[in-house]
């Protein structure tokens, strides 16, 4: 049995990378594919790049703004039993889809497949894969609990999802921008019967200066980030009221509070209220030695304001010396929050 897989590539001004994404699909060892590029108002050569592949790639237009709207357009036109989402600047390993199709075919009905992923800047050969706690088979609530407690996440391209599960989960939330994929795949996970991890089904996340959405700090982006977390936590708690689920949700809110302060004090206060209601979180702000000293004496909010002020001084004066108050850890809340916006 070779089910049709529909690959949905939303694209807005992705001409420099789109060919890499498309070719990573056309070069798959799994051949029964429908590859779609959904143009979302590009003003560059994106449409022409996609058109070069002729009948191998279907090009559709979505006039509604946002990647979520483009993905919904793709799902509406998809003919496949399985859905593969892929951003226009990311790429798939040539065996990725085949491995996941095989795993889903032998797994419990209603399962979704996840896969390994790594970052690169110029060429996927640079990528170095490092296993995270969520890189294993998990029950749906357990996946979210592990992820939100710091166990890693899955970018949208890492999943292969039965269309029937997406039908139960519902469409992408077009009101969201920041963390729209986290909210969507939270629903997908909770509507699935199991998460089947495929270690050899690999994808590559392009880490470039062009990926700005997850680093946005404007008011609309932070509202979207909070809403996505709030919706996701409420859904998990509807399915599981366990102490572990409550702690994971509290930590999800707490991470947002760390990241959003001091830009959105009202959203920070709302997140902190949820943390308190859920029984608290043991998540701590990461930082250098000076940051930790200031945080212990005067609180993390004062310490973060000091860090931001120091970074502003460095930016204005061009100082290149080490920032003694900045984090030297990959587990700093700012970095982890940015990473977790890319997946569940």
What attributes does this structure have?
2 domains, 13 helices, 5-stranded mixed β-sheet, globular, single chain, Spore Coat Polysaccharide Biosynthesis Protein SpsA, Chain A, 3-stranded mixed β-sheet, alpha/beta, 8 strands
What does this structure look like?
The protein is α/β, with parallel strands linked by helices and 344 residues long. It has two domains: 5-213, Alpha-Beta Complex (Spore Coat Polysaccharide Biosynthesis Protein SpsA, Chain A); 289-328. The protein has 13 helices and eight strands. The chain has helices at residues 15-26, 46-51, 67-77, 96-106, 140-151, 163-169, 180-191, 219-239, 243-260, 265-277, 289-298, 300-317, 333-340; strands at residues 5-11, 33-39, 57-61, 82-85, 91-92, 112-120, 161-162, 195-206. The strands form two sheets. It has a five-stranded mixed sheet with strand order 3-2-1-4-7, sandwiched between helices. The two termini are 30 Å apart. Mean pLDDT is 91; it is low at 321-344.
